[in-house]
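User: Second chain of the day. Same drill as before.
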Amino acid sequence: MDQKGFTLIELLVVVAIIGVLAAVGAVAFSGFMKNSKKTVADRQCHQVIKEIRTLWQGCDAGIPLYLRNDWGDLDTNSDWCTHTQNNFTMVQEWESHFRDVYLNPYFANETGDVRQALRESCSRPDDMKPGCIQIQVSNSYQSAVQGSDPYWYFTCYNLDQNDNLTTYEDKILGIVH
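Assistant: Same format as last time:
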């Protein structure tokens, strides 16, 4: 009698091979996701700083600076190159402007405020800081009195290869109001 088909042993071997491949794939995928979050956080940090630097340089060239408001609309009533609001308000406006542009790669699937990458403060527990880009400004009144230039300070938080919290800091010349 000629029987065609697979034996139980052959099927078990195939299932075992598929299980091993799935386990190896899951570990590799996890490592890939961890590395991609680090890369995205690093690139976003540099991109935000570059964009804000470019927008400030546009002010020097006479190009108006319009930002998106909390509702996502471009506010063409306020040229931030000449606006009289204080710099604290300006930091909040940058945060609103980039709200839906840069999401924190470590918390992009979360809900609420933690999803935002650019923030006026990253003062939360260290396990919540990766991917956060903190923007602060020097006291513009004090800078004007002392004759020094106002700087916008950026602190970008990320994880290193050993998952330790690291920071990258940069500053750009801003505008005094």
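The mean pLDDT is 83.

User: Great, on to the next one.
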